[in-house]
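Encode chain A's predicted structure.
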Amino acid sequence: MNRRMIAPLLFGLIGTAVLIFLGLWQVQRLDWKRGILDSIEYRITADPVAVPPNPIQAEDQYRRVDASGVIETGEIHVYTAAPSGGVGYRVIAPLTLTDGRKILIDRGFVPIGDKDAARAIGPVSVVGSLLWPDDGALDSIPPDLAKNIWIARDLPAMAAELDTEATLIVAARTDPADGPAPLPVTVNIPNNHLEYAVTWFGLAAVWAGMTLWLLWRIKRRLD
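Encoded structure for chain A:
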């Protein structure tokens, strides 16, 4: 092999190897993300269990629960939009469980015009999911306490406001069903690692092809 071909060959081999490595890494990430999504789907759709005595986010996020208690007076209104209801508010209320613990319940959605309407309180059975909300950039926006308008579901702040534990059930259904329209927990975590892997492998193929073309051009000039 002519010495002029060594540098392009090494450059091509290293570049192709790096791109293949990135593609394989994305395949590993694909399996990892699928595992997370399968775990979340299982928790959301599993048979409901009692609310754990000391819920932990790392273990109980999205866990489906079945609880009975009494919805007490007091509400927090969190500005949101419902898929079929336009803009309005999530209604967060205190729920005293039958064991005496006082937690939070996300009762669901009401339109803007019903923000301050009277709502039924009292005994209730609820099936829903435990949630430690992550509202992203909205978490940095403080609530307007005077108007009772919250932009994000700040769990510790809501618990302090309503004097409850920092535990939240997002209702999927309630009995009686005469309150806000439930907004059950759904998870929309993107999983684009397959597309990323195909992209890296495609670039590796192009890099290898361009390297072969360059070596062919150099060899032709030398011949």
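The longest strand covers residues 86-97.
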